[in-house]
Amino acid sequence: MSRHRTLVAGLAAAVALTALTACSSSTKKTNDGGSGAKKDGGVYTSIDANNQITAGAPMNPFNAAPNSFLGYNQMRLGFDKFNPSDPNDLFPGLAASWTASDAGLTVQLQPNAKWSDGTPVTVADIKTSLAIAYTQGTAGPVAGAGSTIVLGTNFEVSDIKDLGGGKIEIDQVPGAKNLYFQRLVLSATIVNDKVYSGLLPADIWTLIGAVQGSDQAAAKTASDKLTALGKTIAAFAPAKDVSAGPFVLTRVGPGEALLDRNQYFFAVDKIAPKQVILRHYTGNQQIWGFMTNGELDSSPYTSMPTNILDQILKAGYTRTDAPSYVSASIAFNEKQAPYDKTPVRQALAHIIDRDAVTKVGEPVGGIPAPYTTGLIGSQTDAFLSDDQKAALNAYKPDAAKAASLLQGAGFTKDGSGQWHLPDGSPWTITLQTVNGFSDWIAASTIVANELTAFGIKTTPAITADFATYQKEMAAGKYAVGWWLTALGPQTDKAYNRIYGTADGFSIVNGKAVHSDTSAVNWQHTPATYTVNGQTIDPGQLTADLSVTPVADQKPIIAQLAAATNQELPMIQIWNYTKVGFYTEKHFTNFPKSGADALLLNQPGVWMMQGFVQAK
Amino acid sequence: MTGFARRLAGKLLAGLVMVWVVVTFTFFLVHALPGKPGDVQYESYIMQGFSPEEARAKVAAVYGFTSHDPLLGQYLGYLGKLLRGDLGESTYYSGVPVSHLISSALPWTVLPVLSGLVVSFLIGVVAGVVAAVKRSSRWGGLLSVSGSLVAGVPSFVLALLLLLVFHTEWHLLPDAGTSDITLEPGWSPAYVGSVVQHAVLPVVSYALLSYGGWLLAMKSSVVTVLGDDFILASELRGLAPVTRARYIGRNAILPLFTVLALSFGVMFAGSFFIEQTFDYPGLGELLLKSIGVRDYPVMAGAFLLITVAIIAANIVADLCYTLIDPRVRR
Amino acid sequence: MAATAALSTVVRNRRPAFTAFRTAVTRKPGRMIGFGIIVFFVVLAVCGPWFYGTLAVDPNAIYAAPSADHWLGTDFAGSDVFQEVVVGARYVLSTAALAALFTSVLGITVGLVAGYHRGLVDSVLMRVTDFVLTIPGLPLLIILSTVWSFGSPWQMGLVLGLTGWGGVARAVRSQALTLRERGFLEAARGLGLPSRHIIVKELLPNIAPYVAMHLLLSVIAFIGAEVGLFFLGLVPFSSTNWGVMLNQAVFSGGAMNSPDALIYLLSPLVCILLLTLGIVLFLDAVDELFNPRLRERA
Do A378 and A491 fall into the same domain? Predict the structure, then answer.
């Protein structure tokens, strides 16, 4: 009995405590909100869309899900402007200026560049960071990466020389003429040598040399060692953040990250906020919630419906738009009949009303794709002449046109309005999409409805997760499914998405080789197309793009765009647009629509460039 | 008391066997799942502007933590590590120890779950007795219905409604996180107050989640006991109400110990919905996220921890049962 | 002996089951309401999809307000929310019913056999039960949802049932344990009646109220679990149901932040609440039906 009573007493005490603290919380609330802010610039609150924040993850940028935030406490020599007409255009970061040379690149560090512990940023930091890039697979070949070195992908640094006075020469491997060497080197993550060099062996550059060497066996051994090192580095958890960026990570709570201004930052006078809070989120709906409550100073791109957009604008936010080089498409497996027939794909393009689909799928962050060219709308506009554009087929909704295309291909329509395949069986479509991509799922209901109304019974099917989707798609299990294309701003990347490995093309010594039986080939388009009476090889044209400077790309792109528009390996439904928001409640001078280069970067980069000032 | 010790030892042994079974089950279940962690991340790298080759290389480097040994070897290795308290390394967080991730999340599940359990137990049991005694009156009936309704309504429905009212409409309580990040963690009143403030909605949700269970079990139990012959007899014999209440209480509390173990499980399971709705970064959210990104070691670890907690609750419930019901004690 | 006799009379008196049922249900208006709600939803689930075959979409009327055409407004695709609620009821209810069937068969059998026999059989069965109880059902379902398709109510119901019978088995056993020590069972054993007779004729009727209560409660729990899985977006769906509606409303429609999508969120929520209320009110009648002592004391 006594045991019993003690138990009850304990429980009672616990409840009393809970009740007490619950009461104290309600009184607490009033002085919680505004305190602390406004002094010395105050607190800047935002969200890092690429980083959901997990307590317990390391403060190490090389981890896959780190508590390290680009532009705030994670620095680079420069920040990519995502300029489609000049891929080597960057904002200065730790590098104040740079000049390209025959050997590679000469970089002038910011004269006052310092780490948050007060020590200067030196050549040793750059050298260690670039060596680490090799272990992370982002600088050169690593084992398991497919063994082929693709130009334009890795930056292949061979040597780093200290020229004195903060001037550094970064050399490219002789013979590796990477068009984008400058951008790739400058956007490598720079970490502190004192923190990270202990993880690297003394002979790291010998290993890197061996990987780049011609001795295959030695290269393989060295590459394995680098990969092993890469794992150690990725898992490394520094005890304390040492940042060369405008902010330094103070603490990561279970729900938020708190960063304080780095008083040693080279342009600290430009940084208005005293602190930055990056909030944790698990889904879009939370970001909407934060904004309708006015809790964020700026927001990253979030997919949203129109009713939420209205709500956010009502809460005092200003919308910014910047191009997003991604397009949502419906792709085909041309090995599965009847999608091997070009008129069938064209007919489907005429049946699907892209405006209506976009309105339901991505009403705010999507622009109905004006053309299917393999590029987003603005890039199509930039690369094609007016005549070339006029020649493109816009595939306007046109049921009659679709019907005649189908009839021409031997399809028939029965009395009930249902279409039949040339062999007489009824035509049904399973439109595959993937769990978690809510815009695709919503859009699928409209597409299915339109196709069913036309007389092709269509059911959307949802794969449980992206990993399975990827795998089953590559295995050729889906005849018709959603896919991201037009991945830019680099045009070669956009076309590589269509006429690359997914289509059986691989590049050997600059030559495109097509294999219809390749394990990852699921599109199964033919190796060549005939466009305007001319035979073209889209794989080879794509390979040529990667070694052609942007200024000379127009003729190649004209051919690829025309071919893609005619043959429709996929139908572009909408192009994403990067919709962001800011409020001038606490700070002013935010980058506005039109400032694409800034808007495609993190707020930390805005601040470095002198934007975001205290009110 | 030696009987009790023997029973305790037996229970512990059985518990250990159960843990082993669960470990084995979890290990093989989790490894039977399709998809690799890197596959999930590949597309997001593509979205971030990496080329396919680059993305593949990055996946290979960053997600190289998946073992390629034969499954049995992996299993034995996993058991061996478990004995040393090592839950393995996360793949999604490239090699971070699972125990580290779990220990960061655990307090934010245990704290609200226990608080909710205590609150709901006290309110539920008292309400249950009232509902049983007054069952023919209107208030008793209403009380029972309230219990059944709250017990029946899914946790996410309650959580969504609470959030809608207290956050969206009234702006009284925060909708995310565990505390105000600008405050230094510690025992300062400001920090503790902030933690409590953030915990109110989750705790209330947990409490509502099991309140109905307690109430209904207690009511039904009291009603059954009230109908028992010996209570009837004691009533007829004119025993003092206090004595009768003791008879009733002692017999009626019995089935509650099964409820304790069960509601512990219900709450941990409910933590998915509650943590997801309030974006409260505990074990449920960690497990949910690890499933989404196919982080097998974290999945297995979090799963294991939840099951071990439930096993422990079962043992405790069973022992309490023995201590109180003399008929089962032998 | 006397108790056994008394009990048998009660059991026998209950024979005209329909009359007893009607009496129990009509005794209080609350029970009538509960019964009515359940019947309403069952009719909805059976007949609803006949009325509305495929849902129409209208991209020009997204999140439209309630009107004569759309009683509860429209959703993200301009589909009628009322129609969705009706069409979605079938999956939700049939899954819950199937799951309850699997649960009760498994749970009662295991619980009774274990509780009555004790010893080795009890140990083995209880270890299995412990295992089922210990494996947290919901996380397991979430993991399984990535391997199995839960598209048909049979699959979802089976999995829910397989993960959910532990509670019933345990409750039945603990009741059986208590009852086992009571006089009338000892008397029956003393008379040399076979175990099967004792379990089926003496134990089962006494445990029935507990089981019935558990079963109805578990129906509610199953509805919660299945709808919850869809709500979290963990289960791929090919057609709409209440969980899908909740998921779309919260995660795509922003119902927590925008009044436009609020009805879309509240419609399935209210259905779940109503159905729960119906079962709860009806539970009272079931309780009385199987537990005549309640009537005597009331």
Answer: yes
